[in-house]
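Annotated sample (chain length 357).
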Amino acid sequence: MNNHTPFIENCSLISYYLEKEKDPTVKYRLAFLNSFHELKDTGYSLEKGCDIFSIAIPTAYAWIRKWNDEGYNGITAPFHESDQPRGRPSKLSDGDLEKLKDMLSARSNWLTQEIRELIHEKFGVDLSLSQVGRIVRKLGMHFSKPYPHDYRRPSDAEEQLMSKIEDAYKSLNEKGISREDIAIGFIDEASPQTTANTVRFWHFGHGDIVKNTSKYKSNTIGFYAIHGDSALDFLPNSKKESIMAFLPKIREANREYKAVIAIHDNFKSHLAKETQEKAQQLGITLVPLTSYSPDLNPIEQIWKTIKRVISENFICSAEYLKWIISDAWSEESKSMSYAKSWIDEFTPWNEYRDLCF
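Output written by the structure step:
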């Protein structure tokens, strides 16, 4: 290949970005490009630049092309791992991975870019963001939105709920009712509405979806049973009278059982004296969740699924919205996958897993 100096557009901008750049990988690329601008009158060639920066010639062309076509955004995009400079470590050893895992365990959450910079700083290895993603997945990390925990959530929230459930079983057992004769599940309310757009699709172009922009919502209450039968209803409001009217539906759905344990949140209408008395009359033991611990109620995951189903559909009326909710509930409430981790965690159910699956 003949020695030559390639044409690089907007050279004056390279030094500007180079001065401000923090990412070591991007800075290295910018420095390579800038070398042509600084040494253009010295007979500096592509081959010479590749030799100094320890990169392959195809890599140099790729960086130049991305800069010329897309500017700074192009040069910051991930490149194939073969585009990394030669002479540097290209991967982490098994020992490095163990050390990295220990470092990452010191914090509850990380950004991909932060991990990339940590690897560069501690191990001298420059990786693309996609490489970092593959490595941390192998280490057992998950990439998802963190579940927000209220700062007021007790550190022993699980233990508190466990104690309440054990007390409920003990009280019913003293009345001669065995565990097999007790239905158990979770009560919760939701207000699914048509304005949500939470579903991702593979698509070409803009990925448009036709929706009815008229706003409909439906106050809904459900009982998600992990032993027994689930129930659903629509409420005019969330007042105690509406909650009390739903309790007989739970009992009717589980009439073959001698008692029902219903775990619920700490909403005032659920804790009202009249609600408690109505439940007692029906043979329902209401067990409140630990305060500020909605994550201990697996029915929350069913509501998320139902909202996703709603977002997929064209909702033409409030009645159709209710039909969509009822249909999705009928299907999803049959699944124990939403409660699997709950059942695994709470000891009293370990010996009764065959009742749930």
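Annotation: The radius of gyration is 30 Å.
Annotation: The chain has three domains: 11-83, 94-138, 157-356.
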